[in-house]
Design brief:
single chain; about 80 residues; alpha+beta; two-stranded antiparallel ribbon; 2 helices; 2 strands; about 15% strand; elongated
Length: about 80
């Protein structure tokens, strides 16, 4: 079990083993989530959606909105 001490400014240092386990780097953000029982968990938010731009190559042939809607309708009716 890892523990951390709260400073007078309300700050804590996340123990090294936790930072390593969650692959946390300086500048990463963390969300604090309170569940129904009142227990607090934190989840790293290490990726900004803007960093995903360009990760998937553009298709060689553009697809029209009509084609997309038709495909969605066809696939949706199969379930």
């Amino acid at each position: 079990m890892s523990t951390a001490k709260i400073t007078s400014k309300g700050q804590i240092t996340i123990p090294r083993e936790i930072r390593t386990l969650l692959d946390l780097q300086s500048g990463d953000k963390i969300n604090f989530i309170i569940d129904d029982s009142g227990q607090v968990n934190f989840v790293p938010v290490t990726k900004d959606v803007a960093t995903l731009k360009g990760i998937i190559p553009k298709p060689r042939i553009a697809v029209s909105v009509k084609d997309m809607k038709d495909t969605i309708r066809a696939k949706g009716s199969q379930t």
